[in-house]
Amino acid sequence: MDSFLSIENDSCTEQVIERSRFITHVFYVETEEDARQKIDFIRKKYADATHNCYAYVTDYGNATRSSDDGEPSGTAGVPILEVIRNKKIINVLVVVTRYFGGIKLGAGGLVRAYSGSCRDGLDKSVKKEFFMCKLLSVNVKYEEFNLFNSQILKDAYFVVDKCYGEDIKVVFAIKKSAYKPFIDKFSKIYYDKNIEEVGEGYY
Known about the structure:
Helices cover 30% and strands 38% of the residues. The protein has helices at 32-45, 77-86, 106-123, 145-151, 179-189, and strands spanning 3-7, 11-17, 20-28, 51-58, 63-67, 92-99, 127-140, 158-164, 168-175, 196-202. Strand 2 and strand 3 (20-28) form a beta hairpin. Helix 2 packs across helix 3. The two termini are 13 Å apart. The chain is built from five helices and ten strands. It is of the alpha+beta class. Strands 1, 7, 8, 9 and 10 form a five-stranded antiparallel β-sheet that branches. A five-stranded antiparallel β-sheet has the order 2-3-6-4-5, with helices on both faces. The protein has two domains: 3-125, 2-Layer Sandwich (Ribosomal Protein S5, domain 2), CATH 3.30.230.30; 130-202, Alpha-Beta Plaits, CATH 3.30.70.240.
């Protein structure tokens, strides 16, 4: 998988439906352990709430889970999960906390309330597309740097670090999908320089 869509920052939204208060927290999480820790945090924060229902898609889309947390089966967790799937967002946890307001919503009303709360939370979250990148390192002489910057670094996804010593050590990221043409270009211009792969990951 060369890229995926997720959220950039955690967020919180709130709405009142038939006097019940629905608080939606959206978290970026990479693993199920990350998700469980966030769920425990919400349960403690809203220990007096009627329900803390949730769903997540983690491990780059390979792990999913949902919970109705006492609501009628299939009326909360699964609707939340379906919204996440429909929006094609992964590495995300959505927890919808409900404070019961005295009016029963019925199965259909609960599905609409939880799916709507999740949709509202995700719609108001800042989205980010994460790309699989290779991290590369190269040493450049000071007198070469301006040319290197204009010819090579302009193709980088982002620059990780510059270390100034005898030479300038530059660490930067290249999208995996652009790696081969980048290396071909680099080798033609800087055939006498070694470029080192120092890692890879989603950024």
